[in-house]
Amino acid sequence: MADKEPIRVLLVDDQPLLRMGFRLILEGEDDLCIVGEASDGAEAVRQARELVPDVVLMDVRMPVLDGIEATRAIAASAPRAKIIILTTFDLDEYAFAGLQAGASAFLLKDVAPAELISAVRVVASGDAVVAPRVTQRLLETYVRGAAPAGAAPSGVDGGGPAGNPARPARDPLLEGLTPRETEMLGAMAEGLSNAEIAHRYFLSEATVKTHVRRILTKLHLRDRVQAVVYAYETGLVVPSNADY
């Protein structure tokens, strides 16, 4: 049986030393292949179209075109690519904006090598998100009304007081979900893994994966993390008032 093709990775950061560090870490793995490097967002968009990477490691603050706009452009023009936003803080408005723009996950720039390698593999598989409960905390922080101007999610009124955002109208697409799929979407938004969802509802993981694929298809979403963002933006999940 032929070996699987390696995961194709595009590195995007305006700091050459950081790109070199990521390259040294990832190139040591037989199943990972660095297909290109870009030093700004515009170059990243061009390379994503030409090189067709599986995963893009995307910095946020770059010249010419920032990482958020580059993420949005790649999500639209090279939908095969899964994007991981690189941020400095785990509760960062840029990470939140990146998820809205179409990123599949985010990582801290000082991530441990083993975690970076694992994240690339997980995101390439499309089966899960990186650190789902951290993603949940990020979404609750910003959807709750704390997002800065320009970063408020579509369909949500960010002008209300923090902790009490206006509840958005229910998306008609939700009516196409079965009751079980609605439950699954809520569980995904809680940050539960497929194994945890399977345990909660007494299902096999294969059945959960089938439900997840159907949910993504019905809601026209790219991947699992976009389903989590969608659940918060449409009001299916109401952010808690807890402080993080």
Explain what the structure shows:
There is one protein chain. With 244 residues, the protein is an alpha/beta fold. It folds into two domains: 120 residues, Response regulator (Rossmann fold), CATH 3.40.50; 75 residues, Arc Repressor Mutant, subunit A (Orthogonal Bundle). The protein is 47% helix and 11% strand. The chain contains ten helices and five strands; from the N terminus they run E-H-E-H-E-H-E-H-E-H-H-H-H-H-H.
Looking at CATH, the homologous superfamily of the largest domain is Response regulator
Low-confidence stretches: 146-165
The fraction of residues in strands falls at: 5-15%
Count of extended strands: 5
* Number of H- or I-type helical stretches: 10
Counting helices, strands and paired strands, the structural category is alpha/beta
* Rg value: 18 Å
Question: What characteristic shape results from the CA principal axes?
Answer: globular
Sequence of secondary-structure elements: EHEHEHEHEHHHHHH
Going by CATH, the architecture of the largest domain would be: 3-Layer(aba) Sandwich
At the first level of CATH, the class of the largest domain is Alpha Beta
Count of the separate structural domains: 2
Helical residue percent? 40-55%
